[in-house]
Amino acid sequence: MSLLLLLLIAVPLGAALALLLLPRAVGEHLAPSVGVAASALTLGVALLTLAARPWSTGTPVLELDAPWIPAIGARLHLVLDGVSTPLVLLTAGLGLAVTLLTAREAPSGGSVRSLVVCLLVVEGGALATFTASDLLLFFVAFEVVLVPMWAVIRWWGDAHEPGVRHDAAARFVLYTALGSAVMLAGLLLVTLRAGSSDIVALTAAHGAGMGRTTQVVAAVLLVGGLAVKVPIWPLHTWLAPAHTAAPTVGSVLLAGVLLKMGTYGLVRVVVPVVPEGFAAVAPTLAVLGVVGILWGGLACLVERDLKRLVAFSSVAHMGFVALGIASGTPQGLQGALFANVAHGVITGLLFVVAGGLKDRFASARLADIGGGLRDRSPRLGGLLALGCVAGLGLPGLAGFWGEILAVYGSWRDGVFWKTLAVLAVVGTALAAAYLLRVLRAVWHGESDQPVGRDATGVELAVTLPLVALTVVLGLVPWLLLRLTEPTVQHLLGLGRGAV
Amino acid sequence: MHLALPVLLASLLAGTGVYGVLARRNAVLVLVGVELVLNAAALLLVTFDAAYGDALHSGQVLTVFVVTVAAAEVGVALAVVLLLFRRRGDVDLRGATALAERRDVP
Amino acid sequence: MTARLVVVLPALAALVGLLVPRGARRAAAAVAVVGTAGALVAALAELAAGGVTTGITLLGPVPTGAGVVNLDLRADRLSAVVAVMVGVVALCVQVYSTAYQHHDPRYRAYAATVSLFTAAMLLVVQADDLLLLLVGWEVMGLCSYLLVGHDSQREAARRAAVKAFLTTRVGDVGFVLGIVVLLAGAGTTSITVLLQAQTLAGLSPATRTAAVLLLVAGVVGKSAQFPLHTWLPDAMEGPTPVSALIHAATMVAAGGYVLARLLPLVATAPGARATLAVVASVSMLGAALAALAQDDLKRVLAWSTISQVAYLLAAIAVTPADLGSAPSVLHLLSHAGFKALLFLAAGALAHQVHTTSLAGLAGSWRRAPLVTVVFTVGLASLAGLPPLSGFWSKEAVLGAAEEAGGWTGQLVLVVGLVTGLVTAVYATRTWLLVVPAGAGSAELALVSADGGAERAADGDLRPPEVGVGGPAAVEVVEPVPIAMLVPLVLLAVPASFGGLLLLGPVVPGAVHLSAVTGGVAAGLSLIGVVATALVARSRPDPVLALAPRLRGAMAAGFGVDAATRAAVVRPVRALARLVAAGDRDVVDAYVRGAAASARGAGWALRRTQTGGTTGYLTWVAVGAVVVAVAGVGLR
């Protein structure tokens, strides 16, 4: 069973390597099918891991431990538990989605083989991040995705404005690399002071062996570094340009996978490892999260570009995740983990649609797309409407449960936390305002623009599972919440049912 | 054995070498200065290796290392000097500023 | 089990309705009607079964990490009665729509959305958990948005749709927070558990007041009460059957239903109840006055809805706890009956002349006599003329207010009586403007849609086609289709005889009737009718008797809309622009600053690159000395 973990990472990375080794002509020819096959296989492996019943206990259900760099005590230690499983499934699913999209409608900008290799490396790196149980391995996996993502934005991005695209790619890679450097300092501090780099052991120790000052310094460094990736206000300014310039597949991976790595790091490496330090940082993180909710919502109210708008809405949604994590309560953490996955699904859907619109109208500006989408291309319009409605947190769709649980979690004693909770709920009203603004401008109404191509087969094949997931998670939230609950209790150091 | 003599000799060598490096304009003489500094270092290594009786003789090992590196370095450096002479007709360092940062290129 | 069917059947109808092929109108209509009828049958079965059943699993238990929220349903008399009402109105609307939306190219989506709305409303009715209720509550809002914006080619419809959703969403900020307060305070959102005496006793008075106040905020938004009422008159841009279902009978009354459901909790928060009483009183009288000065039939009915829903909220605000929620529920049911009837009749009349303005509808009697008869019944019931249902339910509310006493009871009683008078006045005015055939009307020709004059295929509102056969113009109209007449006649029954509900054990709780209050209320209604009729003898429109400035203020809803725009919408927009600029010029400035400083440092260091070997070697020597000194000094 534990070999599944190795397969999970080895399949996409191995396929990428194999593609690179093939002769050029053969490689270009085979790349799309190899990409789809590899990511489908990965998804299959990810689904197989469910057989280990990760919802049954808070501790890892699958574990793979092998020596890696003995000189510094780093080990190839992979684990799977209730927190990693949803993200592994999400990554594998979105990986299949982006390779499918590439196979059918590859963005212009260069060799298809290179693009597929980049996507597979991002997928493999993300999967390694979500299963790593060694701080060094976590860091390496965290960094592996950076350069391929940079390449995806730099080469296959917005074909209309090369300057903007290059700027966005450079900004993305420099900003996140800076964050990673800060995080690395935190990771090293923890490793040196606690004498171990094994996350499972550190979680069990629950901060024992580290003084308060060490914990606070480590928490500041780790949260500061991870906050860039999440992103948390005011470290978010790389996000909108990167999303706007990236091709559809890049935006989907950015929103659905890369942002999740930041929040996953917070939950996996910060909350249980330096609990005292995190408690000291948490109020600040919560305030920044709420500022992000309101800031993102307000910015969206006047944003003219659909992709930028969705990017800013990501800032708002990740604000809820940050608030939930910062609350330090099990329900807040549950909400954060749920919102994390829901955001990946919903924003993935929205980016597929927004990217499709940008391809059709050569611009993602609301004015250029024009109104009346629901008559001009009913399928695409319907997908956009559903994505927007889910994004505004409508109860009964996936966006809702994470937000309400995050707010519930932050409804703690004291005016400070209650104010934050109230402001966060106000943010949901803002979300309704800006997403309905999109629908009013694009979906409703009529336009003399030419009738665009409606959603193609591959677009439907990619989006319909996301739609189904949005509805299912909205109606049956316990599917996910039951999966994460034991692990959340474990991470917070609570016995099961102790609350 | 008293250490004063070898140390004094090493200082003399190093001082002469630094003077050569800083004051001469002839590229070959500057190279000679660099070699003098290197040899001062090698002399110190041998001296202290003998004085402290290191079991591994790391001082001597490093000296051999320095000699090897110096040989390679002189090989490359003399080739450069030779090319400089072929191109410019002299080996005066004052005029050899073709690698300066150009101000007309942003 | 039946409770589950009540919710699931219309939801299935919505899903299947979206899957039928585009253009298969009959299939879409059949699915919608069958699904709704199924829900109605299930609701009737639930009513017949009687008893209280809780813990009917619908979506399963949700582990929050600090407990479990059970997304369950409950079935009792209150839910069964309201579910039957929703089923009846929804079925009437679905049948009616098959004719009314006959030319609609998006009928499939329309019917499915109405089905989804029905499911959501029934979910609100049947929910035993506040979070599950919130699901239905918000999905209703979404369907309202979709249906108001159904004819989205018109800018007014688009604006109204967004306004309707956003305004209710603002109220829902309170509703969501109220649920969170209860969840954090009591550790549960199960309605059954929340209403148990020991749970209520475990909550501090401050928590109870806060929770109820916040819930009331949501109800104020959804039920279009002052100051969040401005969306409802604008929402009349939606198709008329939708207005009948959502913006009269069900969704706007859902707030009253929720509070009636939570009455034991509401009763323990006197501060929140007093607030509700004041809000309801303001809405009641203000909306009735605004209804008096409208010149569009649907807007008259919309303002009248605000005023009538305020009655049932006022009943909740004052009813003594031991009476139970009977008065408000009774008014909810009777209002649903007569207001749905009025809207559907208005739609039938407007369908003939393609306008909803009172002037355009004048003389309806000649065009559709049967419809005007039921329309008259509806107006009389609205005006509270005995023995129609409106009289009895309003009397139940006023009786409860009288029983309650205290300043809130007296406030509601007095305002309720005055509003009754105003209601009779505007009902009579509406009747006078719409029904009687004026002198000098054009000759009329009823032409069926199949064989008659050419008609536009899209069925949007257009001025009536006028025949040009001779000097005496002939007005050509279609007769009202049978599919629209049947629901009208059906709905006229509860509007007339709804008072009989008082006799049966249908509504939970007790109703207090007083001969004096009833007499005064009926007298005031009669006075209103007669006085308006007298005033109308000398003027074309009775409202012209008022001063023009007062009339203008009433027609504009006393400027609340403009005030909201100035106080909320503009500041938020300005803030948004500020944030967008701040994001670009402040937050991002630090990022660009980092890049600029790196470039500056590079520029400075380039200056040292002189090309002189001796210079470089000097730097090396200096560096060596510095390192050596530092090394020795640090030892």
Question: Can you walk through the features of this model?
Answer:
The complex is a heterotrimer of chains A (499), B (106) and C (635). With 499 residues, chain A is mainly alpha-helical. Chain A has 21 helices and 2 strands. Chain A has helices at residues 3-21, 24-48, 84-104, 112-131, 135-144, 146-156, 162-194, 199-205, 212-229, 239-245, 248-270, 275-302, 306-327, 330-361, 366-369, 373-376, 378-391, 398-410, 415-443, 457-475, 478-491, and strands at residues 62-69, 74-80. In chain A, helix 6 runs antiparallel to helix 7 and helix 14 (330-361) packs antiparallel against helix 17. In chain A, 66% of the residues are buried. With 106 residues, chain B is mainly α. Chain B has helices at 4-23, 27-52, 58-88. The N and C termini of chain B lie far apart (60 Å). The model of chain B has no long low-confidence stretch (mean pLDDT 88). With 635 residues, chain C is mostly helical. Helices cover 71% and strands 5% of the residues of chain C. Chain C has helices at 2-19, 25-49, 77-100, 107-126, 130-148, 155-186, 191-194, 197-202, 205-222, 231-234, 240-249, 251-261, 263-266, 270-292, 297-318, 326-353, 358-361, 364-367, 369-383, 389-404, 406-434, 482-497, 515-538, 548-555, 560-606, 613-634; strands at 53-63, 68-75, 443-446, 466-467, 474-477. The longest helix of chain C is centred in the last third of the chain and has 47 residues, at 560-606. The N and C termini of chain C lie far apart (85 Å). The model of chain C is unreliable at 449-472 (pLDDT under 50). The chains are: A mainly alpha (499), B mainly alpha (106), C mainly alpha (635). Chains in contact: A-C, B-C. The interface between A and C is large, with 59 and 53 residues.
